[in-house]
Amino acid sequence: MKELSPELVKRDGRREEYDRAKLARSLMRAGVAPNTLAGALDRIVPEPNLDTGSLRARIESELELLQPSAARRYATTRTLTARGSEQAGYGWACLNPETVSRLGLRPGDAVWLGHEGAPAPFSIECHEGVERGQAWLNPREMAAMGVRDGVKLAASSVYYEMPAARWLNWRSAYP
């Protein structure tokens, strides 16, 4: 019999089953060292009905003990969904004001957006029409980056280059 994972309470009140692979991908995007990843995943097991904000704080605390440099990157990295929009100028990302705040940034600051390769810098523009968790990018720029509409991007205020081969190896280990 399969053991059920605890449910997490999302910010909007929805419930979602805890997904260890999703956490692994998040930790990889933050640059957690491969020899630290499995131990971190074993130490971070949420109790039932934990809210995602509390889980995130707990993860940051564990990373601070295990790999402080990754803790900073984790704290400043969020996942955004790419959306093509002509309203986004070349080199600019349009984000919802709340998303900008969650990233700890202000309009005009740089945000690093990446998919499978090295992240690229974008200047931030706030736009009320952008849904939370989305980034409007110029469609031509998306094509140049090899990013399609709806692709998940790692967004951070801190630059971190992960070699593509390492990213692809980790991605295949934690689908």
Please tell me what the overall shape is.
Answer: globular
User: Roughly what fraction of the amino acids lie in strands?
Assistant: 15-25%
- Please state the second-level CATH architecture of the largest domain: Beta Barrel
Q: Which structural class is indicated by helix and strand composition?
A: alpha/beta
Annotated CATH topology of the largest domain: Barwin-like endoglucanases
Please summarize the sheet with the most strands.
Answer: 6 strands, mixed, barrel
- The end-to-end span amounts to 22 Å
The residue ranges in which pLDDT falls below 50 over 5 or more consecutive positions are 162-175
Tally of helical runs: 7
Proportion in helices: 25-40%
Q: Number of DSSP strands? A: 9
- Count of the separate structural domains: 2
The mean pLDDT is 83
Listing every helix as H and every strand as E from the N terminus to the C terminus, the arrangement reads EEHHEHHEEHEEEHEH
CATH top level assignment of the largest domain: Mainly Beta
Q: Strand order across the biggest sheet?
A: 4-8-5-7-6-9
Walkthrough of the structure:
The chain has 175 residues and is α/β, with parallel strands linked by helices. The chain folds into 2 domains: 7-74 and 164-173, no CATH class; 78-156, Beta Barrel (Barwin-like endoglucanases). The chain is built from 7 helices and 9 strands. The protein has a 6-stranded mixed barrel. A 3-stranded mixed β-sheet has the order 2-1-3. The longest helix is centred in the middle third of the chain and has 15 residues, at 52-66. It is globular. Residues 162-175 have low confidence and may be disordered.
